[in-house]
Amino acid sequence: MNPFRKKKDVRPDLGVLLSEFNRSLMLIVDKPLLIANFTSRIKQLFPVESVCVFLLDESAGKYKLQNPDGGRPDIVLTPKDRLVNWLSVNDKYLAVSQRPDILTYFSEEEQAILGELKTELIYPLKVMNRINGTVLVSRKTDGVPFTGQELALFSLLLDQAAFAIEHASLYEIQTERVKRMYRADRLATLGELAAGAAHEIRNPLTAIRSTIQYLGRDLAGDSVRQEMVAELIAETERINRIVQGLLSFARPSELHIAETDAEQLIGQALLLLNATLGKNRIDVQFEYFTRDTRIQGDGEQLKQVFVNILLNAIEAMAKNEPQQERTLIISIETGAPVNLYSRYLLISFEDTGEGIGREEIENVFDPFFTTKEEGTGLGLAICYGIVSRHEGEIEVKSVPGKGTSFTVKLPQQYTQNKPPHESKNINSR
Ligand SMILES: Nc1ncnc2c1ncn2[C@@H]1O[C@H](COP(=O)(O)OP(=O)(O)OP(=O)(O)O)[C@@H](O)[C@H]1O
Ligand SMILES: [Mg+2]
Question: N or C: which end of the chain has fewer CB within 10 A?
Answer without folding.
Answer: N
